[in-house]
Every structure is written in C-alpha cells, then in structure tokens.
C-alpha cells in the first residue's frame, strides 16, 4: 500500500467544476462591467453639454493649480477627524455605561443621557453645526473658544457621541447575563465586572459598526466649512469664486476618496476576517 494520499476522481472533478465556475463568473462580471462602462461613457460624452461640463469640472490645468490649497485644507479635516473620533469614542462608551447602569440612585443620570442621545441622534448633523456655530457665540462666554474649527469639531463630537453611545449600548446589552453572573460569583464588584468582563466583550462585538461610523465621521468632517473653517471644501469654494470653474470641487472629492476608500476596504477586510461574529446582535437598535 502506498503511503501517499491522492484525491479521488470525483474530488478532482469537483475541483475542476468549481474552477470552471469561477472562471465563468469572472468573465461574465468582466463583460458586464465593460458594457456598463462603455454605455456610461457614450451617454456622458454624447450629452449636449459635455464640452461645457468638461471645461467646468474636469480642467486638468485647474486641477493641478488648486490641488495644493485643497490638500492643505484636507489636513485640517484630518485633524478634526482624529480629534473628534477619539473624543466621540471615549464619550460614547462612557454614556453607554451610564445608560445601562441599573443603580436606582443613578436614574437622573440615565434620564439625562437618554435625552441627550435622543436629541442628538434625531437632529441632523448640519443643523447641529448651525446651532452650535451661531448659538454658542451669542452667549458671549469669555472662556469658550468661538473659532470655526473648535465649534465645528464640538458639533461633530456632540452628534457622533450620541451615535456611538447607542452602538456601545447595543454591544453591552449583547453580553449574556451569565457572563456577569459568573464574574460576580468569582468575587468581582459591579464596577470590576463592567470594566473587565462586559466592556471588552461589548467593544469586540461592535467593532465593525464602530469602524464604519469612524469612516463616516471622516466624510462629515467636511461640514465644518459651513462655519467658515478653511478645510478642503472651503478651499475649493474659494478657488471656485470668481472663476466659476468647479474643478476644485472635483479635486476635493478626489482627495476625500484617497482617504475614505482605503479605510473602507480595510474595514471590509477586517469584517471579513472576523466573519461578522457578534456584530449582528450588537447592531440591533443602533442603526443610524
């Protein structure tokens, strides 16, 4: 008897069949993509206003000219994104812990947190930016910075903290009660159980949803331009003023895509590697 294993003819036939199916699927997908791309180009180029639109939106000379200024504005967007993201994650986790506590003495805190989350999840982020950006300076508080960057970042933090708090709350509630009971049986206090048992499991469960919200925050950081902050979008608006050439907007979109597309692919790769474990239950009730 030979000591070498060899697949059977049926196994080899299955492998060959799957290979043919993958090749056929690839060719069909490639052909359909080419057909759609050709049709899109034909419709776009054949439109009556294509020449004017090409000059107004896809001017290569204008693109190169405005790219440095727009890239400098994007640096502000990235700083706002990082700062707001860190604060929103930490604040959202703390609010979620406060909302899920069952201590009777902390009912007023739970009520305040619930109202905060309901309000800032229900109001559009653009409206929050306008209210914060124009409302807080009207109070004339001497200790409050009133720069457009600070107020814009504050508005984004207020909104995304509420979103992330609900995501973390869903993750905390997805932890099985037996985990808490086992921790208490081992002698852990309520606070130790929350910190060492509940929160780590909750964070792992909601990581895919959390990462998606962080990617969305990166795009929403461009909304601070409505308050006058010179970010990528505002720099594009300045470049468009007077020339009526909108290529600067295309340049700003291109730079945002350079950041968001790789981030999205990394999040997708992470989710595929995890296989979505634990994220289904944690997302219940946390949808934006």
Description:
With 288 residues, the protein is mainly α. It has 2 domains: 2-45; 66-285, MetI-like fold. It has 11 helices and no strands. It has helices spanning 9-45, 50-57, 60-100, 107-122, 125-139, 148-174, 177-185, 190-220, 232-240, 247-274, 279-282. Its main location: membrane. It comes from Occultella gossypii. This is ABC transporter permease subunit.
Give the averaged pLDDT, no decimals: 86
CATH topology type of the largest domain: MetI-like fold
In total, the number of domains comes to 2
User: Largest sheet at a glance?
Assistant: none
The gross shape turns out to be flat
What Rg is obtained from the alpha carbons, in whole angstroms?
A: 26 Å
Distance between the termini: 63 Å
Low-pLDDT segments, ≥5 res: 276-288
| Topology, number of strands | 0
Fourth CATH level, the homologous superfamily of the largest domain: MetI-like
What is the percent of helical residues? Answer: over 70%
Task: Provide the structure class.
Answer: mainly alpha
Query: How much of the sequence is in beta strands?
Result: under 5%
Order of helices and strands: HHHHHHHHHHH
Number of helices: 11
> What is the CATH domain class of the largest domain?
Mainly Alpha
- CATH architecture descriptor text of the largest domain: Orthogonal Bundle
Subcellular location: Cell membrane
Keywords: Amino-acid transport, Cell membrane, Membrane, Transmembrane, Transmembrane helix, Transport
Membrane topology: Multi-pass membrane protein
Protein name: ABC transporter permease subunit
């Amino acid at each position: 008897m030979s000591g070498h294993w060899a697949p059977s003819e049926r196994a080899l036939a299955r492998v060959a069949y799957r290979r043919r199916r993958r090749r056929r699927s690839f060719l069909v997908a490639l052909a359909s993509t080419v057909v759609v791309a050709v049709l899109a180009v034909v419709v776009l180029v054949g439109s009556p206003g294509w020449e004017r639109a090409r000059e107004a939106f896809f001017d290569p000379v204008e693109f190169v000219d405005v790219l440095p200024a727009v890239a400098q504005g994007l640096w502000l967007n990235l700083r706002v994104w990082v700062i707001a993201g860190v604060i929103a994650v930490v604040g959202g986790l703390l609010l979620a812990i406060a909302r899920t506590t069952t201590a009777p003495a902390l009912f007023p805190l739970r009520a305040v947190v619930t109202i905060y989350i309901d309000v800032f999840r229900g109001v559009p982020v653009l409206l929050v930016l306008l209210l914060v950006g124009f409302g807080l300076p009207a109070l004339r508080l001497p200790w409050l910075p009133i720069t457009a960057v600070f107020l814009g970042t504050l508005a984004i933090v207020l909104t995304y903290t509420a979103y992330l708090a609900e995501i973390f709350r869903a993750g905390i509630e997805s932890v099985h009660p037996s985990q808490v009971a086992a921790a208490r049986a081992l002698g852990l206090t309520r606070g130790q159980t929350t910190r060492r048992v509940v929160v780590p499991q909750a964070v792992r469960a909601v990581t895919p949803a959390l990462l998606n919200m962080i990617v969305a925050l990166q795009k929403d950081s461009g909304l601070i331009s409505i308050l006058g902050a010179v970010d990528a979008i505002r720099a594009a608006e300045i470049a468009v003023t007077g020339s009526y050439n909108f290529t600067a907007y295309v340049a700003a979109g291109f730079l945002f895509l350079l950041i968001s597309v790789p981030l999205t692919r990394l999040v997708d790769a992470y989710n595929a590697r995890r296989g979505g474990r634990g994220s289904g239950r944690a997302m219940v009730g946390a949808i934006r």
